[in-house]
Amino acid sequence: MASLVRLTGLSRLHSRLQSRNFVSSTTMRNDATSNLGTVQVQKKPIGGFRGGIVGFLFGFSLASSFAAYHLLEEYQQASAALQASVEELKVSTEKVSAHVRRIEAVEKDLKALADASASKDDVSKVRSEVKKLYDGLHVEFLDLRTHVWGIQQDLHKLSKKESTEIRI
What we know:
This protein is mostly helical. It has helices spanning 2-19, 26-34, 48-116, 120-160.
């Protein structure tokens, strides 16, 4: 049935071409009418080997691009983590430097206090001098006491009129 439709379509086309003179000579007209069949497009067969290579190359390029994407993503994450740790290290370094400056200031104050304060030897010398002074004052106090006691005795004797001698 399809061939019948084709034949009727071809005969109509042939009659149209003959009514219209597109071709100038009869031989050309005959060649043109004989060429009017269905043209089959020939496809190049893809062999299994060539298809395998193309598939392999496509898969390899797809896998390598996927791996490169993930590698780039991991690199960016590692770079961000490294940058964050560098910033953290910078902050901690600044804190340590501030602590070191405070320690140096405290050491400077301590040295100034150490220079201004007395040592053990100085304290022991002053202590021995104070002891000597105290002993000397005690001896003087005792001398004064005995002198006052003597004056009291003289006064007591004078009040009884036993003696007229005065101690000075």
